[in-house]
Amino acid sequence: MAGENKVDLNKVTETPQAKTGSMRERVIVREKKHEDELLRKIKSEQATQKVAKIDNALKTTSTSATNSEADLLKQVKDSDNSDVFVEDILKDNGTAESLMITSAVPLTDDEKEKIVRKFIEKTDKTLKRITTVVDADLITGIRLQSESFYYENSGQKTLRELQSYIERTWIQEDELN
After folding, report:
1. Which residues contact 124 (CB under 8 A, 6 or more apart)?
2. Are 31 and 132 in contact (CB under 8 A)?
3. What pLDDT sits at residue 81?
4. Are 127 and 79 in contact (CB under 8 A)?
5. What CA–CA distance (Å, rounded) separates 69 from 64?
6. First to last CA, the chain
7. CB atoms within 10 A of CB 140
8. How far, in Å, CA of 150 to CA of 93, rounded?
9. Quick one: where's region Disordered (predicted)?
10. Smallest Cα–Cα separation from 67: which of 48, 75, 51, 84?
């Protein structure tokens, strides 16, 4: 986020809705498309990891039924319907959360991906949606919000904490005098 990040308007996807909207609306459409692609990429990687774990578990068991299960798993992995299988593996059972990333400046695609991966790593949460927002009021830094998680490291937060400290200190000094 150091330096000035600019959105490449040449990458904006034109949709029937975006063609009639402002440039800001067009950028938002492009951002949402990227966020959806990022989420699909991460879910696919998670599914591949889960399939590998299942595959390894099946290989370590030595029953004849396990061999047929392993064959079935291989057939599903290699079939054209593997996306359906992946979706079944990644069903969230109502535990998936939406993540809102708020930053003081626009984030690059790589920065977004790093933030989302770190969020998943630290919280062990499944995501159903990613939203990014640019809020200049943060001054600098970022805020992450989901249904069960909140993290903020911004200039705005630092100023709030400083204001609170000063007010508490002055009140204590007034009470002593």
Report:
1. none
2. yes
3. 56
4. no
5. 9
6. 46
7. 15
8. 22
9. 1-23
10. 75
Question: CB within 8 A of 140, min separation 6: which ones?
Answer: 1, 104, 154, 155
Residue 56: count other Cβ atoms within 10 Å of its Cβ.
Answer: 9
pLDDT of residue 60: 67
Which residues of the chain fall below pLDDT 70?
A: 1-31, 57-94, 177
Query: 124 in the Ramachandran plot: left (φ > 0), alpha (ψ -120 to 50) or beta?
Result: left
Query: Which tokens in the block code for residue 135?
Result: 């809020």
Q: Quick one: angle between helices 23-60 and 82-89, nearest 10?
A: 90
Query: Which structure tokens are listed for 84?
Result: 């359906």
* Apex 33 CA angle, 41 and 25, nearest 5: 160
- 32 Cβ contact list (under 8 Å, min separation 6): 131
**Locus of tokens 């593997």:** 82
Tokens of 76: 């599903």
Question: Which residue do the tokens 């001054």 mark?
Answer: 139
